Amino acid sequence: MVHSDRVLLEAVHDAYSAKAREGVDVKYANTVASAFGYTAEELRSIPLEANLGLSCGNPVASATIKQGEYVLDLGSGGGIDVLLAASKVGRTGQAIGLDMSADMIALARRNAAKQNLTPPQVCFVQAALTEPLPLVSDSIDCIMSNCVVNLLPTLGKAVLMKEAARVLRPGGRLVFHDIIAKQPLSLEITNDLAAYVGCIAGAITLDQYKAILSQAGFRDILLVDTETDINVYSLSETSGSEGCCPPTSGCCAPPVQSSKSKFNANAWVASYQVYAVKPEDEESAVSTDRPSNALQRWWDAFPLAQANVPEISAEKVANLMMNGSPEEFAVIDVRRDDYQGGHVNGSHHWPAQTFYNELPKFVDTFDRTPKVIFYCGSSTGRGPRCAGWYQGRLQEMGLKTSSALVLRGGFKAWRAMYGGRSDLTAAD
After folding, report:
1. Tens digits of per-residue pLDDT, 277-303?
2. Signal peptide span per the entry (predicted)?
3. What is the dihedral of CA 350, 351, 355, 357, to 10 degrees?
4. What are the residue ranges of CATH 3.40.50.150 in the chain?
5. Is the pLDDT of residue 205 over 80?
6. How many Cβ atoms sit within 10 Å of the Cβ of residue 283?
7. What is the overall mean pLDDT for the chain?
């Protein structure tokens, strides 16, 4: 049976999300990781949960990552390669992981937190790899991927390579480890959903892989067979795996049957190292400009604010300021560099871009303040987002001594009403 691209992606999503939620046998995961080039020292340096036994290589070991570089991992899973890369780029660099699964992103963020790594220097963002990547063009020095491209439909592979070329800086490099077909796969294999989820049936041939890279604009393309035993995934009696990930069937996906006994994976596919470079031109060769954050939207690096926060009118806030007790409320300005026109008098300044990382300190400061009122320019983005993070944390901690509010209309509305009142509005 031929499966649509939608069915293929749903099956992959469901299987890998289940892996993130349920975890894996540590012995099995370490066996797979060791077989594909991770050292014992590397595995000890990261949380156990970061290694899910999903690799077909070790791209960090061959990527020659330098301090200060911006590195992107496509299909970052539990975070193993991003966390290893983070130790190389240091505080002046950035290590970003993209994954389609919210469960994988949540797992990777927990693993990063265990090592005191925080966004945006180390961040994980949920994103579909078959769609435009949420990154600034010409911002990344090195793109990694580990046994992921084979999981994309053919058209999705081409889309991803073009997006990889867009976000790489001129002269930037692509370092993938992937499963590639030794010969055109039989229909029995390509139509086997279990084999697809297991990183086998979606593999394309060497010539097809090179063509997709070349059409995307890459040069100096090199693919090297690692000659690793692909059957390592099924060697563990406790793993229950087929290929790099055990298949599951979601509510919209067809039942996935095991293909373990149908064919020898080594006869059809191999693990390859893939190298390619985005060419430079005369103009790009002299350009050194780089954004401070490679993400198009800085807030993508952080969890969604789960709490719905009510608004409060400017009139009520003004009344609190004139007639209320200072212990009754606090006004929080989450703007960072758009202070034109001043600010609400007495505001506490907590910029949104760093707010989530400083949330524990913020809670300690304001958790006994009954009304904590947030605002930004128009209170449609940063203000509600920070208020939601604060309210969500209060709920997680079971604290009812404080609650978040959002100033309706933000500072723009406030200035329109009270811009001429020095007791209510301060000039910057």
Report:
1. 999 976 655 456 788 999 999 999 999
2. none
3. -110
4. 5-301
5. yes
6. 8
7. 92
pLDDT confidence band for 259 (50 / 70 / 90): very low
Burial 308-345 (b: 16+ CB within 10 A, else e): ebeebebebbbebbeeeeeeebbbbbbbbeeeeebbbb
**Has this prediction a pTM greater than 0.70?**
yes
Distance, CA of 419 to CA of 341 (rounded, Å)? 8
Amino acid making up residue 410: G
CATH for 5-301 (3.90.420.10, 3.50.50.60, 3.10.129.10, 3.40.50.150): 3.40.50.150
Report the candidate in 87, 15, 4 with the shortest Cα–Cα distance to residue 258.
15
Q: Which of 80, 25, 28, 88 is nearest to 58 (CA)?
A: 80
Quickly list H helices, 225-281: 265-268
In CATH, what number does 311-426 get? Answer: 3.40.250.10
The CA distances from residue 374 to 22, 73, 88, in Å, are 38, 35, 37
Q: Residue 60: how many CA atoms within 13 Å on its side-chain side?
A: 23
Using one digit for the tens of pLDDT, what is the confidence trace for 166-195? 999 999 999 999 999 999 999 999 999 999
Q: Is the pLDDT of residue 346 over 70?
A: yes
CATH 3.40.250.10 placement within the chain: 311-426
pLDDT recorded at residue 286: 46
With H, G, I as helix, E, B as strand and everything else as coil, classify residue 336: coil
**pLDDT at residue 241 is higher than 70:** no
Q: What distances in angstroms separate CA 24 from CA 78, 79, 160, 189, 244, one per listed residue? A: 11, 14, 28, 26, 12
Q: Residues of 225-249 as b/e, b for ≥16 C-beta within 10 angstroms?
A: ebebebebbeebeebebbbbbbbbb
Residue 53 has pLDDT above 80, yes or no: yes
DSSP code for 49? G
Give the sign of the dihedral formed by CA 126, CA 129, CA 131, CA 134.
Answer: positive
pLDDT digits (tens, 9 = 90+) for 137-159: 999 999 999 999 999 999 999 99
Q: What is the pLDDT of residue 278?
A: 98
Q: Residue 401 phi/psi, 5° resolution?
A: -85, -5
Question: Amino acid letter at 184?
Answer: P
Q: How far apart are CA 203 and CA 390, in angstroms?
A: 45
